[in-house]
Amino acid sequence: MCHNDLQKEPAVLLWPQVLCFGKIILSAIKISVYPTTTLICVEEEKAGILMKVGREIMLRISGIFILAILWQIAGHLYHSPALPPLGRVLRTLYYFIRDGTLTPHITASLQIISLGIGVAVLFGFTLGLLMFRYRSVKIAILPVVETVRGVAALTMFPLLIVLFGLGIFSRVFIIFWTAWPAIVLSTLNSLDIDENIVDAAKVYGAGEWRTIFSIRVPIASQGLITGIRIGAGGGWIGLVAAEMLGATRGLGYFLLWSAQSFQFERVYATIIVIAAIGGVTNGILLLIQRQLTQITGVT
Length: 299
Fold this sequence. Notes:
This protein is an all-alpha fold. It folds into two domains: 1-79; 85-296, MetI-like (MetI-like fold, Orthogonal Bundle), CATH 1.10.3720. Helix content is 86%, strand content 0%. It has ten helices and no strands. The chain has helices at residues 3-78, 86-99, 103-133, 135-148, 157-164, 168-190, 195-203, 208-245, 251-260, 264-296. The longest helix is centred in the N-terminal third of the chain and has 76 residues, at 3-78. The termini are far apart.
Protein backbone atom coordinates (compact mmCIF):
# COMPACT_ATOMS: atom_id res chain seq x y z
CA MET A 1 0.00 0.00 0.00
CA CYS A 2 1.45 3.35 -1.02
CA HIS A 3 1.78 6.42 1.14
CA ASN A 4 -1.09 8.31 -0.64
CA ASP A 5 -3.55 5.48 0.06
CA LEU A 6 -2.70 5.56 3.77
CA GLN A 7 -3.53 9.28 3.87
CA LYS A 8 -6.89 8.86 2.11
CA GLU A 9 -8.14 5.95 4.22
CA PRO A 10 -8.95 7.87 7.45
CA ALA A 11 -10.96 10.45 5.47
CA VAL A 12 -12.92 7.71 3.72
CA LEU A 13 -13.64 6.00 7.04
CA LEU A 14 -14.94 9.28 8.55
CA TRP A 15 -17.58 9.91 5.85
CA PRO A 16 -20.26 7.62 7.37
CA GLN A 17 -19.81 9.31 10.75
CA VAL A 18 -20.09 12.75 9.14
CA LEU A 19 -23.27 11.74 7.32
CA CYS A 20 -24.76 10.28 10.51
CA PHE A 21 -23.94 13.46 12.43
CA GLY A 22 -25.52 15.53 9.64
CA LYS A 23 -28.71 13.52 9.83
CA ILE A 24 -28.86 14.07 13.59
CA ILE A 25 -28.47 17.84 13.10
CA LEU A 26 -31.20 17.93 10.42
CA SER A 27 -33.55 15.94 12.65
CA ALA A 28 -32.92 18.36 15.49
CA ILE A 29 -33.64 21.29 13.18
CA LYS A 30 -36.92 19.71 12.04
CA ILE A 31 -38.00 18.99 15.60
CA SER A 32 -37.17 22.49 16.82
CA VAL A 33 -38.33 24.55 13.84
CA TYR A 34 -41.28 22.80 12.19
CA PRO A 35 -43.49 22.40 15.30
CA THR A 36 -42.95 26.06 16.10
CA THR A 37 -43.83 27.00 12.53
CA THR A 38 -46.92 24.79 12.67
CA LEU A 39 -48.01 26.29 15.98
CA ILE A 40 -47.51 29.78 14.60
CA CYS A 41 -49.67 28.92 11.56
CA VAL A 42 -52.37 27.41 13.76
CA GLU A 43 -52.37 30.43 16.06
CA GLU A 44 -52.55 32.78 13.08
CA GLU A 45 -55.44 30.78 11.65
CA LYS A 46 -57.31 30.90 14.96
CA ALA A 47 -56.67 34.61 15.26
CA GLY A 48 -57.98 35.13 11.74
CA ILE A 49 -61.15 33.18 12.50
CA LEU A 50 -61.71 35.11 15.73
CA MET A 51 -61.21 38.42 13.94
CA LYS A 52 -63.66 37.39 11.23
CA VAL A 53 -66.29 36.32 13.78
CA GLY A 54 -65.74 39.49 15.81
CA ARG A 55 -66.07 41.66 12.72
CA GLU A 56 -69.32 39.93 11.75
CA ILE A 57 -70.74 40.36 15.25
CA MET A 58 -69.81 44.04 15.25
CA LEU A 59 -71.49 44.54 11.88
CA ARG A 60 -74.63 42.79 13.10
CA ILE A 61 -74.98 44.94 16.21
CA SER A 62 -73.78 48.18 14.64
CA GLY A 63 -77.23 49.02 13.27
CA ILE A 64 -78.87 48.43 16.65
CA PHE A 65 -76.16 50.46 18.36
CA ILE A 66 -76.63 53.41 15.98
CA LEU A 67 -80.41 53.22 16.43
CA ALA A 68 -79.98 53.25 20.21
CA ILE A 69 -77.78 56.35 20.05
CA LEU A 70 -80.23 58.19 17.80
CA TRP A 71 -83.11 57.19 20.05
CA GLN A 72 -81.34 58.48 23.16
CA ILE A 73 -80.48 61.78 21.46
CA ALA A 74 -84.00 62.25 20.07
CA GLY A 75 -85.52 61.53 23.47
CA HIS A 76 -83.46 64.29 25.09
CA LEU A 77 -84.05 66.80 22.30
CA TYR A 78 -87.76 66.22 21.68
CA HIS A 79 -88.89 66.50 25.34
CA SER A 80 -92.14 64.61 24.81
CA PRO A 81 -93.72 61.95 27.06
CA ALA A 82 -94.48 59.98 23.90
CA LEU A 83 -90.76 59.65 23.13
CA PRO A 84 -88.85 58.90 26.33
CA PRO A 85 -85.06 58.45 26.16
CA LEU A 86 -83.82 54.91 25.70
CA GLY A 87 -82.24 54.90 29.15
CA ARG A 88 -85.62 55.29 30.85
CA VAL A 89 -87.13 52.57 28.64
CA LEU A 90 -84.33 50.15 29.49
CA ARG A 91 -84.77 50.92 33.18
CA THR A 92 -88.46 50.08 32.87
CA LEU A 93 -87.55 46.88 31.01
CA TYR A 94 -85.18 45.96 33.83
CA TYR A 95 -88.02 46.37 36.35
CA PHE A 96 -90.22 44.18 34.15
CA ILE A 97 -87.60 41.44 34.13
CA ARG A 98 -86.94 41.73 37.87
CA ASP A 99 -90.59 41.75 38.89
CA GLY A 100 -91.86 39.31 36.25
CA THR A 101 -94.50 41.79 35.10
CA LEU A 102 -94.50 40.58 31.50
CA THR A 103 -94.07 36.87 32.24
CA PRO A 104 -97.79 35.91 32.11
CA HIS A 105 -98.30 37.99 28.98
CA ILE A 106 -95.26 36.46 27.25
CA THR A 107 -96.43 32.97 28.21
CA ALA A 108 -99.93 33.61 26.86
CA SER A 109 -98.61 34.96 23.56
CA LEU A 110 -96.14 32.10 23.08
CA GLN A 111 -98.87 29.54 23.71
CA ILE A 112 -101.08 31.08 21.04
CA ILE A 113 -98.28 31.41 18.48
CA SER A 114 -97.14 27.83 19.10
CA LEU A 115 -100.64 26.44 18.57
CA GLY A 116 -101.27 28.55 15.49
CA ILE A 117 -97.95 27.78 13.81
CA GLY A 118 -98.23 24.09 14.72
CA VAL A 119 -101.64 23.78 13.07
CA ALA A 120 -100.46 25.82 10.07
CA VAL A 121 -97.37 23.60 9.58
CA LEU A 122 -99.43 20.40 9.78
CA PHE A 123 -102.13 21.68 7.44
CA GLY A 124 -99.80 23.51 5.05
CA PHE A 125 -97.32 20.65 4.67
CA THR A 126 -100.09 18.07 4.11
CA LEU A 127 -101.90 20.23 1.56
CA GLY A 128 -98.67 21.13 -0.24
CA LEU A 129 -97.70 17.45 -0.37
CA LEU A 130 -101.05 16.47 -1.85
CA MET A 131 -100.86 19.30 -4.39
CA PHE A 132 -97.42 18.11 -5.46
CA ARG A 133 -98.41 14.45 -5.65
CA TYR A 134 -101.72 14.88 -7.48
CA ARG A 135 -101.92 17.29 -10.37
CA SER A 136 -105.71 17.54 -10.17
CA VAL A 137 -105.49 18.70 -6.54
CA LYS A 138 -102.91 21.31 -7.51
CA ILE A 139 -105.07 22.64 -10.34
CA ALA A 140 -108.11 22.88 -8.07
CA ILE A 141 -106.44 24.28 -4.93
CA LEU A 142 -103.65 26.57 -6.18
CA PRO A 143 -106.00 29.37 -7.36
CA VAL A 144 -107.67 29.29 -3.94
CA VAL A 145 -104.33 29.59 -2.15
CA GLU A 146 -103.18 32.44 -4.37
CA THR A 147 -106.47 34.25 -3.78
CA VAL A 148 -106.93 33.90 -0.02
CA ARG A 149 -103.32 34.68 0.89
CA GLY A 150 -104.02 38.29 -0.06
CA VAL A 151 -106.80 38.51 2.54
CA ALA A 152 -105.37 39.92 5.75
CA ALA A 153 -106.27 37.85 8.78
CA LEU A 154 -107.24 40.91 10.82
CA THR A 155 -110.04 41.71 8.37
CA MET A 156 -111.71 38.50 9.52
CA PHE A 157 -111.28 39.23 13.21
CA PRO A 158 -114.65 41.01 13.74
CA LEU A 159 -116.42 37.97 12.25
CA LEU A 160 -114.38 35.61 14.41
CA ILE A 161 -115.36 37.54 17.52
CA VAL A 162 -119.04 37.27 16.58
CA LEU A 163 -118.77 33.56 15.71
CA PHE A 164 -116.36 32.31 18.37
CA GLY A 165 -116.00 35.13 20.91
CA LEU A 166 -112.73 36.47 22.33
CA GLY A 167 -111.38 33.08 23.31
CA ILE A 168 -108.20 31.31 22.25
CA PHE A 169 -109.69 29.93 19.04
CA SER A 170 -110.04 33.34 17.39
CA ARG A 171 -106.39 34.26 18.00
CA VAL A 172 -105.12 30.82 17.00
CA PHE A 173 -107.09 31.13 13.77
CA ILE A 174 -105.45 34.50 13.07
CA ILE A 175 -101.99 32.88 13.34
CA PHE A 176 -103.07 29.92 11.26
CA TRP A 177 -104.59 32.05 8.51
CA THR A 178 -101.51 34.24 8.29
CA ALA A 179 -99.00 31.36 8.15
CA TRP A 180 -100.49 28.49 6.14
CA PRO A 181 -100.32 29.95 2.57
CA ALA A 182 -96.54 30.52 2.85
CA ILE A 183 -96.03 26.98 4.14
CA VAL A 184 -98.18 25.46 1.38
CA LEU A 185 -96.36 27.29 -1.40
CA SER A 186 -92.90 26.63 0.03
CA THR A 187 -93.71 22.90 0.36
CA LEU A 188 -95.06 22.74 -3.18
CA ASN A 189 -92.03 24.47 -4.69
CA SER A 190 -89.37 22.81 -2.53
CA LEU A 191 -90.47 19.27 -3.35
CA ASP A 192 -89.70 19.91 -7.01
CA ILE A 193 -86.09 18.65 -7.02
CA ASP A 194 -83.73 17.18 -9.62
CA GLU A 195 -85.61 14.26 -11.18
CA ASN A 196 -82.38 12.40 -11.90
CA ILE A 197 -82.01 11.74 -8.18
CA VAL A 198 -85.57 10.42 -7.98
CA ASP A 199 -85.11 8.27 -11.08
CA ALA A 200 -81.98 6.72 -9.54
CA ALA A 201 -84.03 5.71 -6.48
CA LYS A 202 -86.83 4.30 -8.61
CA VAL A 203 -84.33 2.06 -10.41
CA TYR A 204 -83.85 0.24 -7.11
CA GLY A 205 -87.59 -0.24 -6.66
CA ALA A 206 -88.56 2.80 -4.57
CA GLY A 207 -92.19 3.79 -4.94
CA GLU A 208 -93.59 7.30 -5.36
CA TRP A 209 -94.45 7.91 -1.69
CA ARG A 210 -91.18 6.39 -0.53
CA THR A 211 -89.15 8.67 -2.78
CA ILE A 212 -91.16 11.64 -1.50
CA PHE A 213 -90.45 10.99 2.18
CA SER A 214 -86.94 9.53 1.86
CA ILE A 215 -85.53 11.78 -0.88
CA ARG A 216 -87.70 14.78 -1.72
CA VAL A 217 -88.59 15.88 1.84
CA PRO A 218 -84.98 15.76 3.19
CA ILE A 219 -83.69 17.70 0.19
CA ALA A 220 -86.62 20.13 0.40
CA SER A 221 -86.13 20.76 4.13
CA GLN A 222 -84.41 24.10 3.44
CA GLY A 223 -87.43 25.47 1.62
CA LEU A 224 -89.81 24.06 4.22
CA ILE A 225 -88.01 25.89 7.04
CA THR A 226 -88.03 29.08 4.96
CA GLY A 227 -91.81 28.82 4.64
CA ILE A 228 -92.14 28.29 8.40
CA ARG A 229 -89.94 31.32 9.07
CA ILE A 230 -92.10 33.50 6.82
CA GLY A 231 -95.30 32.14 8.36
CA ALA A 232 -94.04 32.54 11.92
CA GLY A 233 -92.98 36.14 11.28
CA GLY A 234 -96.34 37.09 9.83
CA GLY A 235 -98.18 35.13 12.49
CA TRP A 236 -96.34 36.92 15.30
CA ILE A 237 -97.33 40.30 13.86
CA GLY A 238 -100.93 39.16 13.46
CA LEU A 239 -101.07 37.82 17.00
CA VAL A 240 -99.93 41.08 18.60
CA ALA A 241 -102.49 43.00 16.57
CA ALA A 242 -105.24 40.51 17.45
CA GLU A 243 -104.41 40.77 21.17
CA MET A 244 -104.72 44.53 20.90
CA LEU A 245 -108.21 44.19 19.42
CA GLY A 246 -109.59 41.56 21.74
CA ALA A 247 -107.78 39.76 24.57
CA THR A 248 -107.42 39.86 28.33
CA ARG A 249 -103.80 38.71 28.41
CA GLY A 250 -100.83 38.84 26.04
CA LEU A 251 -98.16 41.24 24.87
CA GLY A 252 -100.53 43.01 22.50
CA TYR A 253 -103.06 43.49 25.29
CA PHE A 254 -100.41 44.83 27.68
CA LEU A 255 -99.08 47.15 24.96
CA LEU A 256 -102.52 48.64 24.29
CA TRP A 257 -103.29 48.96 28.02
CA SER A 258 -100.00 50.79 28.61
CA ALA A 259 -100.68 53.18 25.71
CA GLN A 260 -104.19 53.94 26.95
CA SER A 261 -102.72 54.61 30.42
CA PHE A 262 -100.13 56.98 28.88
CA GLN A 263 -97.28 54.91 30.31
CA PHE A 264 -95.04 55.24 27.29
CA GLU A 265 -91.93 53.75 28.88
CA ARG A 266 -93.94 50.54 29.27
CA VAL A 267 -95.10 50.77 25.67
CA TYR A 268 -91.57 50.95 24.31
CA ALA A 269 -90.30 48.28 26.71
CA THR A 270 -93.04 45.93 25.49
CA ILE A 271 -92.17 46.71 21.88
CA ILE A 272 -88.54 45.77 22.59
CA VAL A 273 -89.69 42.46 24.11
CA ILE A 274 -91.91 41.74 21.10
CA ALA A 275 -89.05 42.46 18.71
CA ALA A 276 -86.62 40.37 20.76
CA ILE A 277 -88.93 37.33 20.80
CA GLY A 278 -89.49 37.61 17.07
CA GLY A 279 -85.75 37.87 16.45
CA VAL A 280 -84.95 34.90 18.70
CA THR A 281 -87.62 32.77 17.02
CA ASN A 282 -86.28 33.58 13.58
CA GLY A 283 -82.71 32.93 14.79
CA ILE A 284 -83.66 29.48 16.11
CA LEU A 285 -85.32 28.54 12.83
CA LEU A 286 -82.32 29.89 10.91
CA LEU A 287 -79.99 27.79 13.06
CA ILE A 288 -82.10 24.69 12.35
CA GLN A 289 -81.95 25.52 8.66
CA ARG A 290 -78.17 25.74 8.73
CA GLN A 291 -77.91 22.44 10.59
CA LEU A 292 -80.09 20.81 7.95
CA THR A 293 -77.78 22.27 5.31
CA GLN A 294 -74.82 20.52 6.91
CA ILE A 295 -76.71 17.24 7.24
CA THR A 296 -78.22 17.11 3.76
CA GLY A 297 -75.44 18.94 1.96
CA VAL A 298 -78.03 20.97 0.04
CA THR A 299 -77.79 24.76 -0.02
